[in-house]
Amino acid sequence: MADDVDVGNKADAQFSERLIIAQRSIPRARMIDYGLPARDADFLQSLSVDSEKEWWDAAEDLGERHLFDADRQAASGNHAMAVLEREYASAAFNIGQLAINSDNETKRRLYGRATACLEENAGRPGCDYRRINVPLGTEGSLFGWHFRVPDAFGHVIMFGGLNGWGASFIRLARALGRQRIATVLAEAPGQGETRLISGLHLSRETIGHASRLIEFIADDGKPVGLVGFSFGGLIAAHVAAAVPTIAALCTNGSPVAIEALNHPVERELFGAAFGGEGDALLERVKDFNFDSDTEIIRCPVLSLEGGADPLVAAGTWRGFVGDGHPAADPRFWEDGLHTLYNHSAERDALIASWMSDCFRRKMEY
């Protein structure tokens, strides 16, 4: 009997720890930034051990509710509301999978459902996005979302981080669209279905595939900019240094180098993105560090950082551009959380306006 009690207590402690980690790493501001309604974010943040509900199960329930509402709206002829409800459902499924670091079946199912919601929208008249699949031969495909803009005068490729990918950044894509900039919300190697379906992990070798995205969207000779949030800023910086035609780069809450993986959550996240474990994993991650002495970024660089970011220290941006970059533009929010979740509307408007200015100067030149 005592053994049964000990097992039960251990299970309760593990459940409690999972919930605490999820609520800390996925704060209310992040969920709203990723497109979840505030009431749903409040609900997930209010979960307690007494609820006996895993984070991902509670998020999936919210997604199911929004899909029910989408069907109801569609049946009534309110197709715009149906599209919105599917986007809410997608956000809920996506936020559910954020709490799962390793690629298990629950994570794959939830991310697949998040994608399916938007794919259903993409077939509707007036929808501003479509799913893209860029073949890589025997290595599978790169996936993402393409936000098309009539008469666009430039393009942006946006990279998310270790577990916030692709359609998490619909609002940024639409902010760019208001500036007549078309956007690809990319799922790079190590991210999204590029990893979950193609099995393509991140490395110095596979990051070169990002050039295929540039070819995919920029066959019209118009300027191309890159945006990277969190670890995605490191991905974008490598691409910007390797492709001299890139017109502008924005990093947001981005590390320049990783020297250790001290926490189990870190090891799980990086292991899923890069593949491998132990010393071999750390070496693969360190090999991805940025060196501004050998990798030169020549385009203008907008760097965003927050003073309340527990993951990236203020001033880290300097590691991307070295000393004396003529077009470095750092911006700092004293109370900014990681990737400025809590200033998302202002952040997105700034990025879109700044990219537009860079593109116009590029075209005038």
Identify the notable features of this structure and list them briefly:
de novo design (two linked rop proteins); 8-stranded mixed β-sheet; 365 residues; alpha/beta; 8 strands; 14 helices
At CATH's second level, what is the architecture of the largest domain? 3-Layer(aba) Sandwich
Number of strands: 8
Q: Major sheet: size, sense and barrel closure?
A: 8 strands, mixed
β-strand amount: 5-15%
What would the principal axes of the Cα set say about the shape?
globular
User: Roughly how many Å apart are the termini?
Assistant: 79 Å
Poorly predicted runs: none
Name the CATH superfamily classification of the largest domain: Alpha/Beta hydrolase fold, catalytic domain
Pfam families: Abhydrolase_6 (PF12697)
Protein name: Pimeloyl-ACP methyl ester carboxylesterase
Domain AB hydrolase-1: 163-335
Organism: Novosphingobium chloroacetimidivorans
Walk me through what this model shows:
With 365 residues, this protein is of the alpha/beta class. It folds into 2 domains: 1-127, Up-down Bundle (de novo design (two linked rop proteins)); 128-365, Rossmann fold (3-Layer(aba) Sandwich). The protein has 14 helices and 8 strands. The protein has helices at residues 2-25, 28-33, 38-45, 55-75, 79-98, 105-122, 170-177, 192-196, 210-217, 231-242, 264-274, 278-287, 318-321, 344-364; strands spanning 129-135, 141-147, 154-159, 181-187, 224-229, 248-252, 301-306, 328-333. An 8-stranded mixed β-sheet has the order 1-2-4-3-5-6-7-8, sandwiched between helices. Strand 7 (301-306), helix 13 (318-321) and strand 8 form a beta-alpha-beta unit. Helix 4 (55-75) runs antiparallel to helix 5 and helix 11 packs across helix 12 (278-287). The termini are far apart. The mean pLDDT is 93.
